Amino acid sequence: MSIHDLAVRAICKMTPIKHNRIVFDSYYGRGYSDSPKAICEVLRQSGEDLDLVWLCRDEAAEKTLPEGVRAVPNHGMKKLKALASAKVWVDNCRKYENCKRKGQIYMQTWHGFTLKKLEQDVEDKLEPAYLRACKSDSAQCDVMISGSGFMTKLYRERFWYQGPVLNTGTPRNDIFYRNHAEIHAKVCQALGLPEDRKLALYAPTFRDDHSTEAYRLDTALVRRKCEEHFQGQWSVLVRLHPNVASQSGELFAYDGDRLVDVTAYPDMQELLCAAGLLITDYSSSMFDYALTGKPIVQFATDIEAYQKGRDFYFPLDSLPFPLAKSNEELETILTELQPLWTSPEWAEFAREHEFCEDGNASVKCAAIILQQIKKENTK
Question: Same domain, yes or no, for 34 and 81?
């Protein structure tokens, strides 16, 4: 055991566990988002006496937190003490700290239905540090949250994980069962757009080499075809992955009206809920968005190159979403595009892979957490 590990264990032993403390993290401190946010919202409104702690990597992340949730830095001694003193951890990514103690509960929500192969299925491609974190994290985890039979199978067989998996649905996707019009209005207001503006969201994932050549979407074409086919005035929103966010201004000529950079918008699920069309490539967002029944297009111009490094569980052309490999193909697809709720292919895909979303996942997860806390209080 390293000196660092010994020091961590010593600090943990000296830190008493606060039985009403819950520590949340999302995407390594990026702020209030994803499934941890959805669970935290239910707990925040529960009326229970809870100490809700959010790990934040910078001031921008801290500003996303609502009243009743306090920030702790996602690094150093303060983070370690927060984890050591909490009754419950909630995360959507791997933890690199091996500091879980007897009596603590660790809930792992992960981050979506996956197209790309991961964990043991790409073990030979993982960085050694991440591989160690995977195995350590899975050993600490008490429960994993799943939104489909497909992901449940992966968690049980490909995650180095031996514990229970609960088919609660995905907490971050509960938003799609709420009032879309209210969320659309909220997003438009935040972006300074008229509330009757229709929104097309382009949300590609990143490339391992951080290249951006594949992001050459013709946004003017998208806007024009949407206005012709779906009527109304449209804006195209562009959300790049944080790994390439700094290059966004070099790739697109944003005007803040018809073409808007939303890379820094704190909640991806709100953008998905507000959008009337999603264009993506290899992102799990397409499976989340499919729950809305609204139209999806895959825009992927570098399939062979991407697949060499990542590989997929499903061939792109087998998915129930139309695939464009060029802007020319995209134009044809947009001319004929139909809402997903009319697609028997999507309905069959959801049945085959046992999607179990019902809009109540965050309530179910919060109930599990409160049960653990109340159990401790009655001892």
Answer: yes
- The DSSP symbol for 28 reads T
Give 148's DSSP letter.
B
Does 20 share its domain with 129? yes
Same domain, 150 and 200: no
- What CATH code is carried by the domain that includes residue 59? 3.40.50.11820
pLDDT tens-digit profile, the chain (379 residues): 455 556 666 776 778 999 999 999 999 999 999 999 999 999 999 999 999 999 999 999 999 999 999 999 999 999 999 999 999 999 999 999 998 999 999 999 999 999 999 999 999 989 999 999 999 999 999 999 999 999 999 999 999 999 999 999 999 999 999 999 999 999 999 999 999 999 999 999 988 788 888 999 999 999 999 999 999 999 999 999 888 878 888 889 999 999 999 999 989 999 999 999 999 999 999 999 999 999 999 999 999 989 887 889 999 999 999 999 999 999 999 999 998 888 999 999 999 999 999 999 999 999 999 999 987 665 5
Q: How many domains does the chain have?
A: 2
Q: How far apart are CA 360 and CA 365, in angstroms?
A: 9
Classify residue 4: in a domain, yes or no: no
Parent domain of 92: 13-170+359-377
Place of tokens 């947009």: 334
Please indicate, yes or no, whether residues 189 and 329 belong to a single structural domain of this protein: yes
Cα-flanking dihedrals φ and ψ of residue 7, to 5°?
-65, -40
How many separate helices (H) and strands (E) can be counted in the chain? 15, 13
What is the Cα gyration radius of the chain? 21
Instruction: Give the integer Cα–Cα distance in Å for 66 and 54.
Output: 10
Pairing of strands 18-24, 51-56: parallel
Residue type, 218: D
Tell whether 2 is covered by a domain.
Answer: no
